[in-house]
Amino acid sequence: MDAPPATERIARAGYDYVVLDGQHGLIGYEGLLNGLLAIDAGGSTGLVRVEANDPTPIGRALDAGAAGVIVPLIDTADDVALAVRAAKYPPVGRRSFGPMRSALRFGPEPAKANAETVVLAMIETAQALANVEAICATPQLDGLYVGPVDLSLALGARYPGDPEIADAFEDAVARIAAAAATAGIAAGIHTFDGENANRRLKQGYSFATVSSDLSHLEAIAAEHLRVARG
């Protein structure tokens, strides 16, 4: 949501990071900037899932002060290389130098920004799963990030949570975690509640996003209503 006070409260709740969703979230660039300001005020770390694997949204998210980007719809190692080049300054990449707020986080030296800016590749397609080991070997890639719903649909699910592909999904999630571990990079995943997040962390994932702002709001509102009605 484009609601900086709510974003700051989430950041103050103790989460290690908060993701702003530029792909599916109801948020524009001004909302992205204000959200990153709110996350910083709340003492957490701001990541942005950008709208596409394109230099413009990647650069703008980083210029606005994101600590890193989650890049969607990655299929191949070549796709990852494009994302890395968009996120890193020369000579590593092709990011244009206009740090705006990011200089407050990393300082004025491009080399320091290159070393500390996080690039995460989403694994959410059948092609990405088939290429996951090669994707992990891409230089300067910091980690993977599983999009569970799109991945399940790619595996043949008729709808999110379809039990018919549960085994295939679990095999895929395990393969992704193993590939990242072998390559020495992080593995992250979006989850829908704390229980599932805890399970993935125990499975070997480095980090797990717990639900979303709208889902948190809906769950708490429904629970308060249930208790009030007895």
TrEMBL record:
Pfam family, one: HpcH_HpaI
Start and end residues of each HpcH/HpaI aldolase/citrate lyase domain: 6-217
InterPro entries tied to this protein: Aldolase/citrate-lyase_domain (IPR005000), HpcH-HpaI_aldolase (IPR050251), Pyrv/PenolPyrv_kinase-like_dom (IPR015813), Pyrv_kinase-like_dom_sf (IPR040442)
GO MF terms held by the record: aldehyde-lyase activity; metal ion binding
Coiled coil spans: none
Gene3D superfamilies referenced in this protein's UniProt entry, alphabetically: Phosphoenolpyruvate-binding domains (3.20.20.60)
Keywords: Lyase, Metal-binding
Gene Ontology cellular component terms for the protein in this record: cytoplasm
Family: Belongs to the HpcH/HpaI aldolase family.
Protein name (database record): Aldolase
